[in-house]
């Protein structure tokens, strides 16, 4: 009975179902006018963001149940699955070979410069300098540098005749890299991605079974939250298919570049991470923010790229993952500033501000 009461409070799920039925019924009338397209696009976007907040909630509960770094891994994997689903759906409707590239690029900009920058600013204002384990940032950034360089920069220097073969080579390499990195993160070097503070705090945390909070962790129903997590992702995918139609019409009507649609996909997929990261920054848990922001960027590159390569092959769609010169410069600046800022084990307002400025530049460049 308690589970039924819990499920009755899944307002985002019920709203999503009602929205789906309503939009589907009025879809043909809405797409005929500019106002109708705006109403459909705005309604679906808000409902999908609300559903993404539900993903964040259930992922957080699973994080409490299983602890770090499993919690952030569940959250980032959920976000990446949402992103893959939406990208593939929009690729099928838009038939744009650069859509996946623009979305992956936008996701990296949003996660590192937008999400991490904003969290560092908020956390810095409230707490000053916020510590984290520098081994985690070094690990993430080195992996990002290699992965982005291989998949999105190197193709520009390879004969186009071999691009198809090289993309399938990337599928194998990236899956292998993610398996190795996940093993390192969860087993052999799990302590890289944890920050326990001083020795006194570590000692108090090791006696977890004596604390009531640890008993509460075992009371969290993992199956319930996992089920709702999956259902929320499915609902987002269904609504995203309708959203792609309204988004395409809206961008075409106002003469806006499709890259803005890619940013919309990145915002939807990053919404759960953004909410969780800001909460963590306010609670002075910068290690969680680092794991979410950099971990999400890495998962986006290592998992989304193989997924869209395979999807484009089986759906017989063109795919171009090579970054433009402007995108290459922005990625290079982002990674260079990250390597400088995240090498001392502490974040502050200035570091967050620098990354947020890069995010503002990224948004500005979308319109020129």
UniProtKB/TrEMBL annotation:
Gene Ontology MF term list: potassium:proton antiporter activity; sodium:proton antiporter activity
Report how it sits in the membrane: Multi-pass membrane protein
Subcellular location per UniProt equals: Membrane
Q: Looking at the Swiss-Prot or TrEMBL record, what is one Pfam family this protein matches?
A: Na_Ca_ex
* Chief location category: membrane
Gene Ontology CC terms, in alphabetical order: plasma membrane
- TM stretches of this protein: 12-31, 37-58, 70-92, 104-125, 137-154, 166-184, 226-248, 254-277, 289-315, 321-342, 349-367
Domain (Sodium/calcium exchanger membrane region) spans: 38-186, 229-367
Does Membrane appear among the keywords?
A: yes
Q: What keywords are annotated for this sequence in UniProt?
A: Membrane, Transmembrane, Transmembrane helix
- Which InterPro entries would you find in this protein's record? Alkaline_pH_Ca-Antiporter, NaCa_Exmemb, NCX_ion-bd_dom_sf
Asked whether the UniProt record includes Membrane among its keywords, one would answer yes
Protein name (record): Calcium:proton antiporter
